[in-house]
Design a protein that fits this description.
Blueprint lengths: L6 H10 L3 H16 L5 E5 L5 H8 L3 E6 L2 H10 L4 E4 L11 E6 L10 H13 L1 E12 L1 H7 L2 E6 L3 E10 L4 E12 L2 E12 L3 H11 L1 E7 L12 E8 L1
Parallel strand pairs: 1-2, 1-4, 2-3, 4-5
Antiparallel strand pairs: 5-11, 6-7, 7-8, 8-9, 10-11
The chain binds S-adenosylmethionine.
S-adenosylmethionine binds next to α2 and α3.
Amino acid sequence: MKPIYGRHFAAVYNDKWASWGAKMWPFIWKAVQRANPDASTWLDLCCGTGSLLKLARKHGFSTVGLDLSKHQLRHARRNLPDTEFIRGDVRALSLERKFDVITCLYDSLNYLRSARDLERVFRKVLRHLNPGGLFAFDVNTFTGLQDRWRGATLLDDSRSTVIIQSSFDAGRALGRCRIIGFLKTGRFYKKFDEEHWERGYHAREIETLLDTTGFDFKKYDADAFSRPSKRSGRLIYVCRPR
Ligand SMILES: C[S@@+](CC[C@H](N)C(=O)[O-])C[C@H]1O[C@@H](n2cnc3c(N)ncnc32)[C@H](O)[C@@H]1O
């Protein structure tokens, strides 16, 4: 499989999509305060360009980010010079320390294409949480990808033009998203072309895995931050070790 979040797409991601952290922050911050007002250490998995950690840092947390893409991390380091960023695969998470808060947001867990990998990550997260710690993640549901990953979208501004073409294979629960773009660098445009695959998870699959791993959890609709329904396209889970 070709690497994703390459140099040019990471630059576009940092311009266009890095606001996700700010959107999720008020909800997550409230959950953290409620669970553990003394929390002081925060690990963001699949941290992208660091948008969530920027807010955690602002609130006094000692922050660490982990991501697979060196290009995403290049932006993250520039955005947050005083945060430690580690390049690594979330499935192989193995740091010699524990954290009060661990997060993983914005489709990141959908990149894990098997329930076995998802379970492996849950187990590793559990091992990296301090007693009383909190783990929060959002995830596209099967229904969400089935409803939303179809057709094409064009994003165009003075720095880049991006065409996103997506489809969903219900039989394999897999969404495919081809992202073709042109990033302005000086007088020229650099072309990029990436193929992203996301697995749509059913709530019951996720919940069985959380339960067997040893987490108690609450879930919410991540678009409205309200009670979830069967049609919720994205869920957010707030989990505590049992
Ligand atoms: C949609 S971005 C979300 C980034 C960030 N969480 C945010 O909210 O902006 C998904 C991120 O997951 C990272 N990623 C995907 N698979 C990964 C893996 N197996 N291990 C670590 N990072 C991964 C990608 O490099 C990318 O930065």
